[in-house]
Design brief:
Layout lengths: L6 E6 L2 H13 L14 E3 L5 E6 L4 H6 L5 E5 H7 L4 E6 L5 E7 L9 E5 L2 H10 L4 E5 L6 H4 L5 E6 L3 H5 L3 E9 L1 E6 H6 L1 H13 L2
Parallel strand pairs: 1-3, 1-4, 7-8, 7-9
Antiparallel strand pairs: 2-3, 4-11, 5-11, 6-9, 6-10
Bound molecules: adenosine-5'-triphosphate and magnesium ion.
The site of adenosine-5'-triphosphate has 15 residues, from α1 and α3.
Length: 209
Amino acid sequence: MKIKDEIIIAISKGRILEEGLVLLDQLGIKTLESMQDSRKLIYDTNNEKIKLVIVRAADVPTYVGNGAADIGIVGKDTLIEYGSNNIYIPLDLNISKCRMVLASLPDCTPGPKIKVATKYVKCANNYFIKKKKQVDIIKLYGSMELAPILGLSDYIVDLVDSGETLKANGLKEIDSIFDVSAQLITNKASMKIKTKSIEVIINAFEKFI
Ligand code: ATP
Ligand code: MG
């Protein structure tokens, strides 16, 4: 049952989760049970008003935008790709940093129709519109590095941290598209209705970044 003034924080599964939990821990927000080995998706915390939910990265903007969660921790890439309707972005958390890049094999010589494989269709489209280049975007859901190797595409648009995965697959970075880090987001209506409780949390985050 929802208690009055309850705050739901949605965190991206995957890479952001670990660093996000460390940050929450520093703030004094701790889950009551260990998340390891648990299949739970919603966790009580030591603050009876705060609950954590773990969802897929791409679903965080949907939960927060619709007010099902009040606060979210999500990558800038995800906000750009999947939208930020009804969402405020009060803080850049400066964690889970990486970059959106354009990469290809070193000997890449595209034909008249340039093919780009990516999970980030909108980001890739925006990039090539800015460059005034017409391209065919091929949507993939993972392991983008494989696409140029097997001739599925000329280029990939993907997130890169150290560049090790690109290197290991013989790809090179052609251009850096934008920098990515995890953002603290809030639902706009929650901000109005639960102003105090949310402000306290934003201020606490601010002290640790
Ligand atoms: P799923 O695998 O469930 O489809 P996902 O692939 O988006 O989700 P992750 O790969 O864990 O999940 O990435 C989540 C977020 O982690 C990204 O949106 C991005 O903001 C951040 N991130 C930080 N470093 C990297 C990196 N090197 N590669 C990919 N994502 C990274
Ligand atoms: Mg992934």
